[in-house]
């Protein structure tokens, strides 16, 4: 089995001078291609920091982070941006663009790969995904007309529409009901099984822990345990 | 916008969608850009009218060289020089002819019509070579005292009435209480300091314009022998007239100096020039305000774009897309309203106000640049984006 994410001896600090404090302590982990891995732990333990390091949103200060075979320690801003295009990111606060319809928000996730591509094909792919997520009737709605759960599903569609190799998700089911949460997790599991999409998810939802291939626990910036 | 997004941008027209989402803000921005455009157009229209008037004021005449009093800045500002300059000039090798040009001003009083101020130009009738095409055919006829060629585009003059003027159907009227007869007409038009003009002989001139004599012309017109180059002729005349308080310029240079003087030295020209800058500044401030507000309102969206892999130039592209849209949407009503104002001004003043393609393109390019500058200033706030903060 190949690994999509490998961290070795990762340390991370915030602030400068006397305000400098360490948030991550010597963390090492491996995430297998196609698996669903959950990062768990109390608030402020460093889960999100790890997610942002893997997501190329922060530079790796110490240790090694290999994402899809690419070393991120010392990676240039350009390389980090290129890597971000290979990821699907789901935010807790959905972060939909209020001026764009549900369909257009999903297209934003598809068009990040630049010019080219048939616009009709892109729209068909985005519409198909929204249909799967139960939003087929709402593709022309602006986010203001969608419920919290619907917005989150649009955000999930935006993350998945470009067939990313790795999905990073921060509490993706926090705004969803039980049914929708299970739908999303099963979809991520199916993507892992069928297409090898790797998911690294931060969540407090115990139901998802049970469906995960691996659950990693963090406390005070240190990896405390991992369960398969 | 679909074909634009697919064909030109190759992406969703995010900038346009953002602008359209806040319709009131968009309407205010477009109105602001349109107002700034109108302001610039009107100022440029006045400036252009001033320049056109200056150029037109030289149109009754032609010459290779103009000799003017050293302290004169325009054709009509009233300074004079000594008539001996004519003889000194014509004595120079390569000079074919020289003639005095007299310029004065008289009042044309008519019943039930406001007093009209006329510029009076005078040439010796034998100096036909210095007459422009519009007056050349009538110049012999004005050798008879108190005969004139009337500007048919003078204010409060019916052009059809003026066009009837001929030696067979002379038009009689009075200027400064003296009877004069128009035996022909030409088209020059009113200026900022006069309502129209007359061309007369030098003899008629000294009868019409008090306190002027034939010994003190306003300018001297000089023609060169065929084959005589302008630059050495100018140098030669400057040398020969070095003891005279005059300036020697080519005819074209005299016109351009006059235009430049109007634009930069005359208070009105400076005010109008400042108005153009003010209009541009208003446009920049309005568009900057709109774009800066929009950028601030969408910082989180832009951070999201960055987090999912979009580049900084992409986000700049969204802002510049908005700037471009505001420039285009604001320019069109600005152009339309300025055209209407030009028509009103032309009707009210009889001055040459009119829209032309060159000015329209200049203002459009200026609007684009001003909007892009505003976009660049507004985009500075993007530096505060940290997509990691989205989590």
TrEMBL record, chain B:
Keywords in alphabetical order: Cell membrane, Membrane, Transmembrane, Transmembrane helix, Transport
Primary localisation category: membrane
Q: Where in the cell is it found?
A: Cell membrane
Key word Cell inner membrane present: no
Q: Which domain of life is it from?
A: Bacteria
- Domain (ABC3 transporter permease C-terminal) spans 276-387
Transmembrane domains' residue ranges: 26-50, 268-291, 323-345, 357-379
Does this entry carry the keyword Membrane? yes
Classify the protein's membrane topology as the record does.
Multi-pass membrane protein
Check the record and name the InterPro entries matching this protein.
ABC-4/HrtB_transporter, ABC3_permease_C, DevC
GO terms under cellular component: plasma membrane
Q: What is this protein called?
A: FtsX-like permease family protein
């Amino acid at each position: 089995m190949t690994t999509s994410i490998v961290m070795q001896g990762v340390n991370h600090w915030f602030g400068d001078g006397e305000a400098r404090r360490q948030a991550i302590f010597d963390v090492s982990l491996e995430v297998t291609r196609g698996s669903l891995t959950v990062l768990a732990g109390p608030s402020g333990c460093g889960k999100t920091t790890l997610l942002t390091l893997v997501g190329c949103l922060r530079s790796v200060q110490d240790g090694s982070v290999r994402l899809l075979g690419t070393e991120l320690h010392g990676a240039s801003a350009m390389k980090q941006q290129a890597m971000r295009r290979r990821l699907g990111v789901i935010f807790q606060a959905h972060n939909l663009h209020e001026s764009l319809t549900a369909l257009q928000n999903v297209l934003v996730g598809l068009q990040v790969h630049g010019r080219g591509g048939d616009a009709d094909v892109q729209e068909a792919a985005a519409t198909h995904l929204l249909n799967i997520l139960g939003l087929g009737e709402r593709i022309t709605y602006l986010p203001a007309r969608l419920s919290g759960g619907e917005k989150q599903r649009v955000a999930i569609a935006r993350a998945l529409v470009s067939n990313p190799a790795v999905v990073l998700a921060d509490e993706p089911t926090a705004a969803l009901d039980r049914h929708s949460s299970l739908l999303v997790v099963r979809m991520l599991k199916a993507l892992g099984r069928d297409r090898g999409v790797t998911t690294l998810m931060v969540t407090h939802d115990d139901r998802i822990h049970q469906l995960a291939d691996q659950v990693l626990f963090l406390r005070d910036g240190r990896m405390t345990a991992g369960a398969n | 916008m679909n074909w634009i997004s697919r064909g030109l941008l190759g992406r969703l027209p995010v900038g346009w969608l953002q602008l359209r989402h806040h319709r009131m803000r968009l309407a205010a921005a477009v109105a602001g850009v349109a107002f700034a455009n109108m302001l610039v157009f009107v100022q440029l229209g006045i400036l252009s009218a001033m320049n056109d008037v200056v150029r037109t004021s030289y149109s009754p005449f032609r010459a290779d060289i103009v000799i003017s009093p050293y302290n004169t800045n325009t054709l009509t500002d009233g300074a004079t020089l000594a008539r001996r300059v004519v003889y000194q000039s014509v004595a120079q090798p390569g000079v074919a002819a020289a003639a005095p040009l007299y310029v004065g001003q008289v009042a044309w009083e008519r019943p039930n019509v406001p007093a009209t101020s006329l510029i009076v130009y005078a040439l010796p009738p034998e100096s036909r070579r210095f007459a422009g095409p519009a007056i050349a055919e009538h110049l012999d006829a004005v050798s008879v005292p108190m005969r004139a060629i009337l500007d048919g585009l003078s204010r409060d003059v019916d052009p059809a009435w003026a066009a009837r003027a001929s030696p067979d159907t002379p038009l009689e009227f009075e200027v400064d209480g003296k009877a004069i007869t128009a035996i022909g007409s030409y088209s020059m038009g009113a200026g900022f300091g006069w309502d129209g003009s007359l061309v007369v002989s030098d003899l008629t001139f000294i009868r019409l314009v008090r306190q002027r004599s034939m010994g003190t012309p306003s300018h001297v017109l000089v023609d060169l022998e065929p084959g005589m180059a302008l630059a050495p002729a100018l140098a030669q005349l400057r040398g020969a007239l070095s003891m005279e308080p005059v300036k020697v310029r080519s005819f074209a240079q005299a016109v351009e100096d006059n235009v430049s003087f109007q634009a930069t030295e005359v208070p009105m020209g400076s005010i109008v020039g400042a108005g153009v800058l003010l209009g541009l500044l208003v446009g920049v401030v309005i568009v900057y305000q709109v774009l800066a507000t929009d950028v601030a309102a969408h910082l989180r969206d832009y951070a999201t774009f960055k987090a999912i892999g979009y580049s900084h130039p992409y986000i700049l592209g969204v802002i510049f897309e908005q700037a471009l849209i505001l420039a285009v949407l604001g320019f069109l009503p600005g152009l339309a309203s300025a055209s209407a104002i030009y028509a009103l001004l032309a009707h009210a003043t009889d001055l040459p106000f009119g829209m032309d393609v060159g000015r329209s393109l200049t203002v459009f390019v200026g609007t684009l640049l001003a909007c892009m500058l505003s976009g660049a200033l507004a985009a500075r706030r993007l530096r505060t984006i940290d997509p990691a903060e989205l989590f």
